[in-house]
Amino acid sequence: MDLQLDQLRALDAAITEGTFDAAARRLSVTPSAISQRIKTLEDAAGRILVRRTKPVRATESGLAVLRLARQIELLAGDTARELGDELSKGPTRVPIAVNADSLETWVMSALGRGPSGVCFEIHREDEEHTTGLLRDGTVMAAITATARPVQGCKVERLGAMRYRPVASPEFARTWFGDGATTAGAYAAAPVVLFDRKDDLQDRLLRRRSRKPLDPPRHYVPSSTGFAAAVRLGLGWGMLPDLQTEDDLAAGRLVPIDPGVVIDVPLYWQQWRVHSPALSAVAATIADAAADALR
Fold first, then answer.
1. Last residue of a domain, one of 90, 105, 137
2. Is pLDDT of 180 > 80?
C-alpha cells in the first residue's frame, strides 16, 4: 500500500475531531481536502476506513490504519525535536487512559513533573477496560489491571492500589452496629459504586456469601463524588488507602470489615515504538508509582 503522510494525518484528524470540518480547521485545509485525502487512502487500502457519521468513526480496518497514523505522527514529532524543530512542529500529543482513582490520587502530580513539549490527553476509564482504548488506537499508553500485553504493546508492573471497605461512623453504627459483617448485614446495607463496570464492592460481597447479594446501590461516577457519598452516609464503599488516610485518622470514616483489603495490581502498557517522548512519560509514571503504590 502507498500510504501518504498527509492522508494518514487527515484520517487521524477526522477521527480525533469527529467531523471533516473540525479536521480541516486542525490541519488548515478545506473539508473537501480532508474528504479527498481519506478517499484516496481508502482506495490505496482497498477498503472503507471511515464511517461518515456524526461523529466520524473508524471501521475495523480504519482502526488498524489509525494506529499506524498516530504512531507515525509520534515518531515524526520526536524526529522534529531531535532536529531542533520544536517550534514549527509543536508539542507532542500523548493520549493516555487512566483509571479514576489513580487520576484522583497520584497520576496528576506525576504528569506535572513530566517532560516538556508534551500535551496530555487523558481518557478516564476503569482499569479493567483501558486496554480497549489501546487496541483501537485511541491512546498510546494506559494504566491497566491487565498484565497480558495488548498486541503491539509492552507492559510493566507499576504496583498495587489497596482498597478497604469503609463508611461514615453513623452509617456503620446503623447497619453494622454490632460489628456483624455477615452476609445478611451486607445484603441489607446500601452500597456505593462508581458505575456498572465497578466490581470492587461485589468482590467483597462474594467473599461474604456463596449466594449473590444485591443490596441497594448508589452509582456515583466520580472519584471525588464517590468518596463524598461514602462520607455523607449514602452507603459503604471500597476506597483506596491513598484517598482515606486523613479521613480515617480524623474519624470521618471507619473500616466496616477490619483487616479486609483488596489489592488491585496496576500495569503500564504502551505502544512498542521507540519514542523519546513516550519513554519519558513512562519513566515519570513509573517513578511516581514507586512512591505511591504498594
1. 90
2. no
In angstroms, the CA 25 to CA 110 distance is 32
DSSP state of 113: T
Pairing of strands 92-98, 50-51: unpaired
Whether 139 and 23 share a structural domain: no
Cell of 68: 499506524
The yes-or-no verdict on residue 89 having pLDDT over 70 is no
Same domain, 76 and 98: no
What pLDDT, in 10s, does the model give residues 134-152? 888 889 999 998 899 988 8
4 versus 232: which is more confidently predicted? 232
Residues 29, 116, single domain; the answer is: no
pLDDT at 234: 97
Burial group, residue 145, by CB count within 10 angstroms (0-12, 13-18, 19+):
middle
Please state which of the ranges 88-97, 121-130, 280-289 shows the lowest mean pLDDT.
Answer: 88-97
Count: domains in the chain:
2
Mark whether 3 and 33 lie in a shared domain.
yes
Beta strand residue intervals within the chain, DSSP E: 50-51, 57-58, 92-98, 118-124, 141-144, 153-167, 191-193, 217-219, 237-240, 254-255, 262-271
Flag whether pLDDT at 82 surpasses 80.
no
| Residue that is last in its domain, among 34, 60, 90 | 90
Residue 71 sits in the same domain as residue 185: no
For the entire predicted model, the pTM comes to 0.79
- Cα distance between residue 19 and residue 13, in whole Å: 9
Using DSSP bridges, classify how beta strands 262-271 and 118-124 pair: parallel, antiparallel or unpaired.
unpaired
CA 226, CA 280: separation in Å to the nearest integer? 32
Residue 86 domain boundaries: 1-90
Q: For position 60, which CATH number holds?
A: 1.10.10.10
Q: Which residue has the higher pLDDT, 86 or 117?
A: 117
Q: How many helices (H) and strands (E) are present in the chain, helices listed first?
A: 14, 11
